[in-house]
Specification:
mainly beta; 35 strands; 43% strand; Immunoglobulin-like; 515 residues; 5 domains; six-stranded antiparallel β-sheet
Length: 515
């Protein structure tokens, strides 16, 4: 009967590998069937080869069943010596071990009631090349160290609801990230969570006027009332710029429905970001109020006279060192005559840091000063120029312009000629024309080239260049050619027209009516 095969012993390296966490489960190798027969010498040879390999720090691979020599009719010594001399092949270099992830971040309570607790968290900063398998949620009662795993399998989500809890328990909760490298450091809730029903979650109802920056002046009284909701009664706390409030300057009074922050006399140092926190068990709500205490600005740091020319002076100044805790909205520039010392404003709400003052009086000297302005008002003091701008008086000799005397002499010229007329016997008629000339021309009237003298039948008028000849009740003999002649030292001019005097012929019937 063939003997039983000797058991194969496990090496220390394999035992250490089994104890250490493996990156991922691998399929088990198929079992090697023992040969039908094996002598004790051959079994010893098989056991001796792994022992020598372990002495050199290497793992010896298992020999396949086909290479096991048969025991029938063969001498056992020669094959054993050959197996001992043969050197087994080296195993490949194993990969570096996996590293656990970092701690899950910002573990907090999302919801709680009398039988369940929902928590949430953020993914760890460092996950590693091996990836993330999931999370384990564990909890234990306050005062104990018995941590209970809340779920049967890993969860990949960033929130989890722990159910079937006992009302009234005070639980500590932690979250552990798991990857092929093992468990991470746990992320734990800051405070234990009481398992009970929350009637109203805390909620701050910030007034609209406080949602933006609240600006107050130095010396004002500040009284901010901020209502909130929450049952049971919330715990209210205040911080200023991340630090506890100075109770000597700021008073806080809390009730079931609101919180009042009171400052009797506001000062610049009271400016900052005030954070209000309303907390019910593990639930909380936060709101911030930005308080800005402002006052009048200081004067500009310096002002100087850059240049003075003609009737102008150029100024330049620098912003004030103290802006009153708010931005500078403008500057006011004033001038003063050294003779009178009275200040007059020349520029208001001016935004630049340079200005030119014009329309200065010749021979006078001027000083200038500049005030800073913000939303509170104008600075109480000003920056005054050390230099004086003197407007030089230059000698001027008035020389009147020379004008050439214009010769207005002009020969007579008729601007409106005479027109031919037709008159009726016994009806007065008038001839008209206009003339210009310098000196004033002398006007004469002629009839058929004969000068009309002072004949009372004719009336001659000349006024402002308008010449007229009135013929009173003309008869048939008054018809003819009439001429107007204008004469002065520069020459003369004439204009003529023809006058026709018509006789009215009456019928026999009209004559009888006339009688």
């Amino acid at each position: 009967m063939p003997g039983k095969p000797a058991p194969i012993k496990k090496s220390p390296a394999k035992k250490a590998a089994e104890k250490a966490p493996e990156p991922a489960p691998e399929p088990e190798p198929a079992p090697v069937e023992p040969p039908p027969a094996e002598t004790p010498a051959e079994a010893a040879t098989v056991e001796a080869a792994p022992a020598e390999a372990l002495a050199e720090g290497e793992a010896a691979p298992a020999a396949p069943a086909e290479d096991t020599p048969a025991a029938e009719g063969s001498a056992p010594a020669a094959p054993a010596e050959a197996a001992v001399v043969e050197e087994p092949p080296k195993a490949p270099t194993p990969p570096p071990p996996a590293v656990p992830t970092s701690t899950p971040l910002e573990v907090s309570v999302e919801d709680v009631n009398d039988s369940s607790l929902t928590i949430k968290w953020k993914t760890p900063e460092t996950i590693g090349d091996s990836g993330l398998d999931g999370y384990i949620i564990e909890y234990c009662k306050n005062g104990t160290t018995d941590w209970v795993v809340a779920q049967e399998e890993l969860t990949s989500a960033n929130r989890y609801c722990v159910k079937n809890l006992t009302t009234g328990d005070l639980l500590h909760v932690r979250v552990v990230a798991v990857n092929p490298g093992g468990r991470s450091e746990p992320g734990t809730l800051a405070e234990p969570v009481p398992i009970r029903e929350i009637v109203d979650r805390p909620k701050i109802r910030m007034p609209r006027v406080l949602r933006s920056r609240c600006v107050k002046q130095v010396g004002e009284q500040i009284n901010l009332v901020i209502p909130f909701l929450g049952k049971p009664k919330p715990v209210v706390s205040w911080l200023k710029d991340g630090q506890p409030l100075d109770t000597k300057r700021v008073n806080v009074r809390n009730s079931d429905k609101d919180s009042i922050m009171f400052i009797r006399t506001a000062q610049r140092e009271d400016s900052g970001v005030y954070e209000m926190t309303v907390k019910v068990d593990s639930f909380e709500d936060k709101a911030t109020v930005t308080l800005q205490i402002v006052e009048l600005p200081g004067p500009p740091a310096s002002v100087k006279l850059v240049d003075a020319w003609g009737f102008n002076a150029a100024l330049e100044w620098t912003p004030p060192k103290d802006n009153g805790n708010t931005e500078i909205t403008g500057y006011t520039v004033q001038k003063a005559d050294r003779k009178t010392g009275e200040w007059f404003t020349v520029l208001e709400h001016y935004h630049r840091l340079t200005a030119t003052v014009s329309d200065l009086i010749m021979g006078n000297s001027y000083c200038f000063r500049v005030f800073a302005e913000n939303q509170v008002g104008i600075s109480e003091t000003s920056a005054v120029t050390k230099e004086v701008a003197t407007i030089q008086k230059t000698g001027i000799v008035y020389k009147p312009p020379e004008y050439l005397e214009h010769d207005f002499s002009e020969a007579p010229k008729f601007t409106t000629p005479l027109s031919d007329r037709a008159a009726t016997v016994g009806y007065t008629t008038k001839l008209l024309c206009s003339v210009r000339g310098c000196p004033k021309p002398k006007i004469e009237w002629l009839k058929n080239q004969m000068v009309i003298g002072d004949d009372p039948k004719f009336r001659q008028i000349s006024n402002q260049g308008i010449c007229s000849l009135e013929i009173r009740k003309p008869c048939c003999f008054d018809g003819g050619v009439y001429t107007c002649r204008a004469k002065n030292a520069q020459g003369e001019a004439t204009v003529s027209c023809k006058l026709e005097v018509k006789q009215i012929i009456l019928s026999e019937a009209d004559k009888e009516k006339g009688k």
